[in-house]
Amino acid sequence: MHTLDNVIWQALTTRQAGFSRASGSARKFLSDLGPLSAFGDGEADGFQSLAALLGDQEVGVLFLERPYEAREGWEWIAGATLVQMAAVQAIEAVTHSNGKHELAELGSCDSPEMMELTHLTKPGPFGRRTHELGTYLGIRHGKRLVAMAGERLKVQGFTEVSAVCTHPDYLGRGYASTLMLEVMRRIRDRHETPFLHVRGDNERAIALYERLGFRTRWTGHFAVLKKTKRDVRPNVSFESA
Question: How far apart are CA 3 and CA 155, in angstroms?
Answer without folding.
Answer: 7
